[in-house]
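Work Package 3 (structural annotation) set out to generate three-dimensional models for the target panel prioritized at the project kickoff. During this period the team completed the workflow that converts sequence records into discrete structure tokens, so that structures can be stored uniformly alongside our sequence database. As a representative example, we reproduce one entry of 235 residues exactly as it appears in the project archive.
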Amino acid sequence: MKGLALGRLALSVLAVLCFSSVLSATVIGTLDLANCSGGGVTVTATTIDWLPAGGGSGCVQTGTTTNITSAVGNVGPGVQGNILDLNVITTPLPVTDFITFASVPGLTFTLNTLGPGPGTDVCTGLALFQSCAAFAGSPFALTRTPTGTAVVLSVDGIVTDGTTPASAWMGAFTTQITGQTPAQVQTTINGGGSITSTHSGAFVISVLSNVPEPTTMVMLGAGLLALGVMRRRSA
């Protein structure tokens, strides 16, 4: 009986080690994005044009909290990447190669979902940190901050390195508009105008599972909520 128990224990340890090795080989970590030097983003009612403009894409740079590990290479702070421009009306989803890094060939972020935005497009009279949509069905959230408005775009998708199972990534891009209320930003966008500003993004990369553990989803949701609160307080 003792030998059988030891054998079972050995098998359990081996299973844990094998499972851990699979997780370590899968793309995982955190991605913190900002615009490249002199860059930013231009947003209209239907388009997202990452700067510098031209060629259908723009430049992003990883921030200090970035820590991505993958089988083809790791990504840390200060790494430049490429991000594709979007038209929320005509760009078909999913968008492959939405974010890529030339320094880590094979690592690619696919965009699956934009938004959804808030359920209301009434932007007048908002309290601090309340949000509205630029228009009904818009994926952008216009959030009132102490200094103006944060334009928030929630996204999610999958990330692959071409050698291991895909992982999930989710989070949000944020553009800060100083000195304008959500109602003023809404008027500009719905009037055919555009907003150009710097931007940032915070994303979590986790193991993609057909049946996620409930505790994993709760922890992921709590982490994203904390990121949102910290960004709002820093606005």
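The longest strand covers residues 148-160.
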